[in-house]
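Case study B.
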Amino acid sequence: MPKRRRTDNAVEEEESTPQKTRRTAQNDSPPSNATTPSNRKSILKGTPTRGPNGTSVVEPTPKSLRKVLFSTPAEKAEAAEEQETPTATRNDRSARRKSARTLQKQPDDESEDGDVAQDTALAEAILDQEDEIVGEDEEEVVVADASSQPTADTPTKRGRGRPRGRPKKERTPSPPPDLPPHELYFFQNRAGANKTSANTLAPNLLLNHEDYLTNINAYKDPHEQDIKRLADLHKRAFDQWTFEREEGFNLCLYGYGSKRQLLMDYADHLYHSSPKPPRIVVVNGYTPGLTLRDIFTLLAKTVLPKSTKLPSLPVPLLDLVLTHLTSNPPSPPITLLVHSLDSPTLRRAPAPALLGRLAAHPFISFIASVDTPQFALLWPPALLRQYNWLYHDTTTFKPYIAEIDVVEEVNALLGRSGRKIGGKDGVAFVLKSLPENARNLFRILVIEQLGAMSHLEADATLGGGDVEDEDEGMLGVSDDEDAAAEAQATPSRRQKRGRPPKKAKAAVTKKVVAPAAEGVEYRTLYHKAVEEFVCSSELSFRTLLKEFHDHQMVESRKDGMGVERLFVPGMGRGELEGLLEELV
Amino acid sequence: MEYEKCYVYEPEGQGPAKRRQIEPQGLQASWKLRREAYQAAWRAQKAQIDAKLSDLNAYAVRSLTAFLDEAAQSPQSSAIPTAILSTGPEASSSTAVTEQLSRDQNAQKCRVFLSISASTGPNLKALLKAIIQKATSRQESPDDDDEDDEVTTRKKGAKLLNYDLQLLADYVSERQLEQVAIAVGDTEGFDSDLLSELVELLGYWCDRIPVVLLLSVATSAESLQQRLSRSAVRCLKGQMFDVAASAIQLEHALEAVVADHPTIWPGSDLIGLILERQSDYIQSIDSFTHAIQYTYMSHYSANALSILLIPSIKFANIPPDHFEALRNVDSFRQHCRGILDDNQASRVRELLDSDEKLFNLAADSIRDLRDRLNSMLPAMKLLQHIQDILHSYPVTPTMPFSKAYKLAMAGRLTQDSSFIRSMLLSVRKSQQHIIGQVLQAFNISSIPATFRSQAETLGKELIRLSASAAGENVQLRSEESVKNSTLRTTVVAQKVELSKQKATLSKRDESYTKLLRRLSDLLERYFGEALVDPKTCLFHELVVYDLRSPYRDTFTPRPRQAIERALATPHDYLDCDCCGPDAASRGKEMMLASSQPTTAVLYQLYLESGSLINVNDLRQAFLAVTAEDGRSEEENTALFQRALAELRSLGFVKGTRKRADHVAKVAWRGL
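Model:
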């Protein structure tokens, strides 16, 4: 089951790591590996994690068959170990891994007999032991599971012989009914529930602003009628709202969906239905650059006579407005209409208190919409007294068109820079206006950084177990052929794009020189640049770099050894690759 | 305009300027009348509550005024005279007191009263600035904000910084002020070092500035002492004052609400909700007033029949459709059913046909109901009083008025309710001095005279009995009192048998027992008559307002639940044909459907996942669900992005650095 859901992406990732360059393994892997996700429900539930040691690579020998049988429990054991990692078992694991490798190697090395047989025996012994441990681990997992969801059915899976096709854990998507809140919390936070796949989201899958806008504008909501009906329902309460406000209450509208249009309709209604239209000050709380000063200045301008000199700081400004209002009460009170009162800008420290003073004033009538479900935490009791809210559920189901910049928001969520100045598109734009040399230099930098990145990732995914391999590389034991295979495997597979093999090789060698650090060493970059005739002297090199620095395309940082390292900030692997594509 | 930061609203176009001035139709036609009625009714009610509360504060205010006077008279010593107001957890009660004080005190020319709170300033400088500014009531010029070196010229030469207390001292000597009283609102809110510094500094100046401090503490004077530095404590000469706790205020406010012939009575469920909120969230007394106000507002605006509550309403003023509505009221239907059961169909016919007859009936029954409700109050009072008396020796909490009111309005104090029964039982066991007090308690003017005279005769008999008993130096005993019977245990055939043995009663005791029986009968009759279940009365819907949902929805919202519900079962809000649970799966949990709004689809996928979510997989799943609608993948991706962005801004997910392209789940449903 877990393998079935592995996407091509993941397959590539796994296979591109230098440790798994055996082609036989790739070809003979079970067909289920290749299938793409199809089941929409289960895809999120128990997405697979693959054992970092890659034990699930299948060999066609009868011996390895035995291993396949237990490969799933082996993953399980690892998962269990993730939570409590005793060093003893970790050591054990590396021994196990070694023995697994010995077993795998066998068909290749069959020609040279001798102590190989002994090794095999030892390996088998260790693996046997592992199976036992695995069995125990699994028992533990099952028990823990049962205790965490007391009302659920008893777990069906016990013992080791489990049919392959079944999901790892059958979790009910919804909790058992009638759990008390604290039990619900533990149910939803139960251990082991957060196994997710290592799939990554290719950068081109997300739409940029233009594509997003064309698509979203083309989209026609099938619920349009219902949403309109809901809005009309709310509109029928307008007169009630007016009554409540006239009685000295302030209104706070909550619920899912943008309430902007509804509030503006209400402003319309207010303006046209009252005999003397009130002055309505609208504040768009969601605008990122909004300051309290903006609000108070606008208020002061509407309330105070034109010639008044306004203080610069918000608090005296507010005092001025309030004292003026007290001494010259406007005939219908000023209506202050705030969209998204709980937006990040209006959430910060002085804002709730100062707006509370406004709300408490008898000649200011406050209407606000709030979006987040936790807005009530904004106001301590003393403040609540000032606000004097009446709350209304105005769920509109309208999209937050003005409130949310969707593309940016998603990019920020995923830690991508998107189209900001420092982002991929921005960098590409700057590069277009730079000379050929600068572009070449940046290309080298990006390649190097990608190389370093892939090394880092390999380190991260493989854990401590592959130290020997690295040692081999360090010592130069790995033969040329192997290196070439690696070189071929690493970049081309990952990116499906032809790149000069020379650079790929460079990336590989780089990896050996600079393990476990972000970016590129200053020296190395310089030498590479000279090698490629990008620049001839350090002075020209620095001039080029300075240009990048000025556009914040490059940052430098000292690493633990005190060596200066250069890197392109704020971009993930996908974006770097995309950038590289544009550069080449 | 949606991308402006803020702006003054301008209507778009001149179009519908007059269109909206349509006269309301149907039952809303009477809204104007009802609104006026509301305003009159609420104004009267508000005045009563306010009067009651200021009465309540009056004692504290008086004693504090006396304290201030004394401090002003006595020569300044080395310590600052300090009043410590203990307020309990709700600080607003002290604010009410200090506000009243400041009104009184500032009227006197020779005193200055000012109040500061923790939010006045973060440091000593800001505090002093504020104090000086407030005391000298100097208008701060617009742009002197942070310029600390701003100086004020004095007549006598040297320039001073604007936080120098010398300014205040000069002001005091200039105006020959007797006293500068500083009320500190929430001492708990202050940084303890800051408060200590302030007190110490004022201590140094108290030979030149006649300062008096009023510190209100929510905890206790001991904890205040612990928080202040030792030298600061040495500067203070404290005196404790108790300000009425908010719970007591609440009781009195509730009494004020129902005491003096109110137009509507809040029902038991509603009062229960309001009181619960008051105690759960430590709300100020204001919020109680607001809740009552909202009750009035809801009743008058939402119930068109409230037009009948207008005291001077004439039959001609009521639109005819209101009578149609009146005929649909539940209690009226029951009333008709009752008449029909008495075989008086013609009367029902009359009521159904003639609006005028109905109007007269309504007016009469509303008056009756009001009278009954009004007569419930003394009964509640008496009940409360008797409870107090009965439970005075075992220390149990006596019954607060709010509880009595709640029980009475719920109809749980009727003649055969368990509460009344147990009370009568304990009356019948009581000793003579308690009975004496109970009989005295009857002497409330609002209790009907017949009952009072009966109680009086009983009282006389009791006096006679106890006088003769006192002559012989014995206690009067009731037959039913436990003290008069002894328990005997006998072992018969290995079983324990308990048997009660009554002590033999003297003649006098017998007559005492009889007296107790008569008293209990009297009480029973009185309570039976006075305490009716208002919900059984005709047209109680018009006079007793007991709807919970408007109050609950507007004062104690559950925003999180609303949003979760909207996203988990959008059908509840949209009421669309496509997403509703079909007949087969009715009652089960809502299933994912491609027809649902996209954010709802994504949210439900989100609910299924663990604490970390792989965005790629989430997208795949989302596309798999929405693919059924036949939109292009790009379009669906756009929708996916929008939904994800919405979830983020609603605070359901946040970015994580634990794994690439993962987001962390932040909000758990139903918690």
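Chain B has a mean pLDDT of 82. The remaining cases will be described in the next quarterly update.
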